[in-house]
Structures are given as C-alpha cells and as structure tokens.
Design a protein that fits this description.
It is built from 1 helix and 34 strands. It has 352 residues and is an all-beta fold. It has 2 domains: 151 residues, 3 Solenoid (Pectate Lyase C-like), CATH 2.160.20.10; 182 residues. The radius of gyration is 21 Å and the shape is elongated.
C-alpha cells in the first residue's frame, strides 16, 4: 500500500496460477478513497465471482482480470460511489454457450446501487451480458468497449434510471448490442437513460440498439453496422411481458447493412406493439441514414401492431435511405405515426 493506492500484487501473485483468494483479500483491504490498481502487464486469474463491496473505492487498470470458469466469471460492483477505470480489461479464457444468471454477467452493477462510474474499461468475452445494469441509479458508462459477449453487450433493466452511456463500442454481441428492457415483474420500468454516440457492430443475434419497455430513453448519434435483426427496435412485447414504451427518442445516426438474418424480417428500423392495454407512444426518430439493408427484407422501416397493441405519436422524420428492400416503409395500421421529409435513393418521397 502506498498512500491512497493498493497494488494488487501485494495480495495476489498474478503469475499464472489461481489468484482468487488474493484478489478477494485485496478487494477486502481497499478502503473508501483508495484505489486498487492492477498494474500494466499484470494478469490476475479468478475462478469465482469477484465483488467490490466497499463504497467509495476506485478499481483501476491497465492490467487484466481474467476469469477461468465461465459459470462463475462475473465481477460485481455491489457498493455505491465506485469508479472502475484506468484501462482495466475484464476477460474470460473462453465460453461454450450462453449463460443467464448473474454469476456469468462479466461486469454486473448490483441491484439498488447508485453513483457508479465505469470509464475506459474493456470487456473481452462474456458468458452472459457484457455489462449488466439492474435496478441501478445515477450510473455512467464512459468509453467502454464490449467484445464477443454471449448475451447482450450492454443490458439495462429492472427499473434502472438516471444513467448515461457515452461513446460505448459493442462488437460481436450474442444478442442486442445495447438494450433497455423493462419487464412487468419489475417494480417500475427503466427511465431517464441517455445513450450517446454508441457504435454497435456485427451482433450474431438480436438487434443493434433497443428499447423494449421504457420511459424517457434517448439514443443519439448512433452507428449500427451489420445487425442480425433490426438496427433500431422500439417495442412492447407480450411474449416477454414487458412494460410499454413512452417518450423515446432516436436522434441521428447511420444504419448500415441491417437485418442480415433472413429468418428475422425486421428491416433496419422496427416499431412494434403486441399486447392490448400496453403499447408504444410518443416516439421520435430523426435524421437517420439507412444504407444497404438486406434487400430480401420486407421493408427498411416498419411500424407494426399485433394483438391489439397500441401505437400512438410515432414521428419518423428526415430519413435518408439508399439500397436495400424495394419498400422503404410499411405498416399494418393506418394511424398513430407520421413519416416526413424522407429521401429514398436520392429522391424526396411524399409524407405519410
């Protein structure tokens, strides 16, 4: 220990063996206001979940925490006012399938916690979601990178609110790149979350960016390339018993080669409601450039209601579309939406 810093190698050898016991001792030793440092060039291996449980501590790289057992590969932030930064990498030796419990989420912000900052951190492989945020408030993800997660790259759920995701990069996710999901089994929907300048590329399943139940969610300046299903998906889903959507904005960005999976007919942008008594309302999307969506998709942009799901106040403005399906837009309802100021293959089209 030197001043406010604790060097992890004072507790863990980090020389190729299992460092779980030493890492847990180091995490237990660091106090509020101190920083636990994994130095450059140092890789510490852990075979069970690691937890930060002291409020006000700082966990920093630029070294690596390497999980060796995919079934217990998570790092949990289970305290308030915690910062993780400094180029830290959270890595896994390998995954064989998608796992679905908290122990396999590579970085988990634990229920009920607040004021957590994750900055300049890389997730390199995950057995579940790369970053899982459940019932957390006042969080910041700043310049995080998530690579090759089995589940969503970044998953926000269980009423998480007042959060910012700034300049995140997600590549090779096994499901949605960045997702806000609000199940009705949760006390309240997610709300007041901003996702700014995200880059999402080549997810092997699911959507690029999504809001499946949520209130006052904003995506801005998005870049989504080679999404498996829709690049942008705003929905209420009966099958997953989600809350409805209201006051969601998608403001500016580019969608390239969307909906690569021919078995999922989404197109580049899909607004969807599927349950009576719930629905999608007050959604604004503007200034999206859509290029080369899979040309066998039904349309580039769709607004779809099934099962009595309500769609109201959906405004789609200033879309610029080139290539892709013959139809730029389709809907199975006659009202509840507008599409204005569109250009398709260099030609202005009539407003809807």
């Amino acid at each position: 220990m030197s001043g406010g810093q604790v060097d992890v190698t004072a507790y863990a050898r980090c020389d190729g063996g299992d460092d779980t016991a030493g890492l847990k001792a180091a995490l237990g030793a660091v106090r509020a206001g101190q920083t636990l440092v994994i130095p450059a060039g140092v890789t510490c291996r852990h075979s069970s979940v690691l937890s930060v449980t002291t409020s006000g501590v700082h966990l920093a790289g630029p070294g690596t925490l390497l999980a060796t057992d995919e079934s217990a590969s998570g790092v949990w932030i289970d305290a308030d006012d915690v910062t993780v930064d400094g180029g830290l990498t959270l890595k896994i030796t390998g995954t064989t399938r998608r796992w679905n419990t908290y122990e396999q989420m590579k970085l988990r912000l634990v229920n009920g916690r607040k004021n957590i900052t994750i900055r300049n951190v890389t997730i390199d492989g995950s057995a579940g979601a790369g970053i899982f945020i459940g019932n957390v408030s006042h969080f910041l993800l700043d310049h995080v990178t998530v690579l090759n997660s089995q589940g969503d790259g970044i998953h926000m759920t269980n009423g998480s609110h007042d959060g910012v995701v700034d300049q995140a990069t997600v590549k090779g996710a096994g499901d949605d790149g960045i997702a806000v999901v609000s199940y009705r089994s949760n006390r309240e929907p997610c709300h007041d979350i901003q996702v700014r300048s995200p880059v999402v590329e080549a997810n092997s399943w699911g959507r690029g960016v999504s809001v499946v139940g949520g209130v006052r969610i904003t995506y801005s300046d998005i870049s989504v390339d080679s999404s498996n299903a829709a690049a942008v998906y705003i929905a209420q889903e009966r099958s997953y018993q989600t809350y409805g959507v209201s006051n969601v904005r998608v403001l500016g960005g580019r969608l390239v080669q969307s909906n690569t999976n021919s078995s999922v007919d989404h197109g580049a942008v899909l607004v969807y409601a599927s349950e009576s008594g719930y629905g999608v309302k007050n959604v604004t999307m503007s200034d999206l450039t859509i290029t080369d969506t899979r040309d066998t998709a039904t349309r580039n942009v769709g607004v779809v209601s099934v099962g009595g799901g309500s769609i109201q106040g959906v405004a789609l403005s200033r879309f610029t579309i080139s290539g892709g399906p013959t139809r730029s837009f389709s809907s199975n309802i006659d009202s509840g939406y507008s599409a204005t100021g569109w250009t398709v293959d260099g030609h202005a089209v009539a407003d809807r």
